[in-house]
């Protein structure tokens, strides 16, 4: 089981601040994607100051490829799952804690810069 994780989510316009998530917690937010489909949210993840990683958690292509719905429907959903072995993305979290139907996209050692 993973220790509590602090996540800080930001975009160019919005800063959602720090949130500490314990086992089985979740963080949700909603937004309207801009007309040019260039909306971008990124996140910093920190686990006990021993594991840190940052990467884009939303952009149009990630939403299209891994999420549900479409840009026209305004009902898009993208789910991220944080585990000891990394970060999974998909449309739904139906089989917690086993990520069936989710894609292991990043490890804790990933560096986006």
What is shown here, in short?
This protein has 113 residues and is mainly β. The protein contains one helix and seven strands; from the N terminus they run ββββαβββ.
**Looking at the chains present, what oligomeric state does this protein adopt?**
single chain
User: Cα distance, first to last residue?
Assistant: 28 Å
**Beta-sheet strand percentage?**
35-45%
When the domains are counted, the total is 1
Please state the structural category. Answer: mainly beta
> What low-confidence regions span 5 or more consecutive residues with pLDDT below 50?
none
Number of strands: 7
Shape: globular
* Series of secondary-structure elements, N-terminal to C-terminal: EEEEHEEE
Instruction: Write down the overall mean pLDDT.
Output: 86
Strand order of the largest sheet: 2-1-3-4
Main β-sheet: number of strands, strand sense, barrel status? 4 strands, antiparallel
- The radius of gyration over CA amounts to 14 Å
The helix count comes to 1
Helical fraction:
under 10%
InterPro entries: Self-incomp_S1 (IPR010264)
Main location: secreted
Subcellular location: Secreted
Protein name: S-protein homolog
């Amino acid at each position: 089981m993973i220790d509590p994780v602090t996540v800080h989510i930001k975009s160019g316009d919005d800063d959602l601040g720090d949130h500490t998530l314990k086992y089985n917690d979740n963080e949700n937010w909603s937004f309207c994607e801009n007309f040019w489909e260039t909306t971008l949210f990124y996140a910093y993840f920190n686990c006990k100051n021993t594991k840190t990683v940052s990467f884009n958690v939303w952009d149009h292509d990630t939403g299209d490829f891994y999420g549900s719905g479409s840009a026209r429907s305004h009902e898009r959903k993208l789910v991220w799952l944080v585990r000891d072995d990394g970060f999974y993305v998909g449309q739904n979290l139906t089989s917690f804690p086993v990520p069936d139907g989710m894609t292991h996209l990043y490890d804790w050692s990933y560096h986006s810069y």
